UniProtKB/TrEMBL annotation:
Pathway linked to the protein: Glycan metabolism; L-arabinan degradation
PANTHER family hit by this protein: ARABINAN ENDO-1,5-ALPHA-L-ARABINOSIDASE (PTHR43301), ARABINAN ENDO-1,5-ALPHA-L-ARABINOSIDASE A-RELATED (PTHR43301:SF3)
Entry annotated with the keyword ATP-binding: no
Name assigned to this protein: Glycoside hydrolase family 43 protein
Source organism phylogeny: Bacteria, Pseudomonadati, Pseudomonadota, Alphaproteobacteria, Sphingomonadales
Native species: Sphingobium soli
Length: 346
């Protein structure tokens, strides 16, 4: 093992050896996982909201695990801490890290329940948005850009922003507009400048109720909410533009996909249905170092684990090849429980 690590360092590779990565995938409690396969050092980075119980740091922010094989992980480190004086004071949801213009950019959702927004019902609304931060190294530290102000409008309650670069090389932020504010959540797109500040007004791509598998959630206030979560864009081998996104279905949280019929953000978007069901969702795609297309998501919704699937790019859609049970040792069905098995606790 020692020779392997020395050889890796001599070759310019710094992937963590298993002996230096004592945490197994089944040990990681992860919501909204985001993986970057960093070719520079053959290391997988898994980003999530900071958990003080595992980092020892009580600040609100983002932590990252490192691995050389997706099965063994180093103890996480804090890569971003929300600075004092920011308008936000809590959150850290759905972190994403993207390479743009030679630097690493962190997208993560924060909020402040004391920063009230106008409400149309008894349900209180408050400021929530995706903040952007930048670093020269993938492991940080990340610092806020644009004075800590999000690209989205101040009065919009939004979350789960992701970076999309269109065919002309222009950046966009695609995000979910909260059902809390709209009743029926939407997926929206905002054009950005090269410095990732807003370059125009947001546009609605689709509503949660456009998908026939989405089940509205009855709220204490008496209304029904339709959730949009976790958009991520993917260009297939044939040039089709797909979007991963999540909402609630009949058996809990669902990982689904949609396809743009125009091949651009403008759509229109057609819903292709669930990829993974039974309380599984908010996933993202990455290429493993051996070339496989992988999906990582969290499941179940409470006390979630990071779950990996090998995927197939079918040209006009994504398909699940298999669960990567060798990474966490647990088989978990991709689709809903058969009717005949539900009484047995499926």
């Amino acid at each position: 093992m020692r020779w392997t690590l020395v050889a890796a360092l001599l070759l310019g590779l710094a992937a963590p050896a298993a002996a230096d990565a004592p945490l197994l995938t089944s040990h990681l409690r992860i919501h909204d996982p985001w993986v970057v396969a960093d070719d520079a050092n053959r290391t997988y980075w898994l980003f999530s909201k900071n958990d003080p119980a595992v980092t020892g740091d009580r600040r609100v922010g983002i932590m990252a695990y490192a691995s050389g094989d997706l099965a063994h992980w180093q103890r996480p480190r804090l890569v971003f801490a929300l600075p004092q004086g920011s308008w936000a004071d809590d959150g850290g949801w759905a972190p994403e890290v993207h390479r743009w213009k030679g630097r690493w950019y962190l997208f993560a959702t924060f909020h402040n329940e004391r920063a009230a927004l106008p409400a149309k019902s008894k349900r209180p609304l408050y400021r929530r948005a995706t903040l952007l931060a930048v670093a020269d190294r993938i492991e940080g530290p990340y610092v806020l850009i644009n004075r800590g102000e999000p690209p989205t409008p101040v009065d919009a309650m939004t979350l789960d922003g992701t970076l999309h670069i269109d065919a002309a090389g222009k950046p966009w932020m695609v995000y979910a507009h909260e059902w809390l504010q709209l009743g029926v959540g939407t997926i929206e797109a905002l054009p950005l400048k090269d410095d990732l500040s807003p370059a125009g007004k947001p546009r609605v791509l689709f509503r949660a109720d456009a998908a026939d598998w989405v089940v509205g959630q009855t709220q204490p206030e008496g209304d029904t909410g339709y959730v949009t979560d976790g958009p991520e864009l993917f260009r297939t081998k044939t040039g089709a533009l797909l979007m991963l996104w999540s909402s609630w279905g009949k058996d809990g949280y669902v990982q689904a996909q949609a396809r743009s019929t125009s091949g651009t953000l403008a759509g229109p978007w057609e819903q292709l249905g669930p990829l993974v069901e039974r309380d599984s969702g908010h996933g993202m795609l990455f290429r493993a170092f051996d070339g496989r297309l992988m999906l990582v998501l969290h499941r179940p919704f409470k006390r979630a684990l990071a779950k990996f699937y090998e995927m197939r790019d079918a040209g006009d859609r994504l398909e699940v090849v298999r669960e990567a049970v060798e990474l966490d040792g647990e088989a978990y069905p991709t689709h809903g429980c058969p009717m005949e098995a539900r009484d047995a606790g499926c």
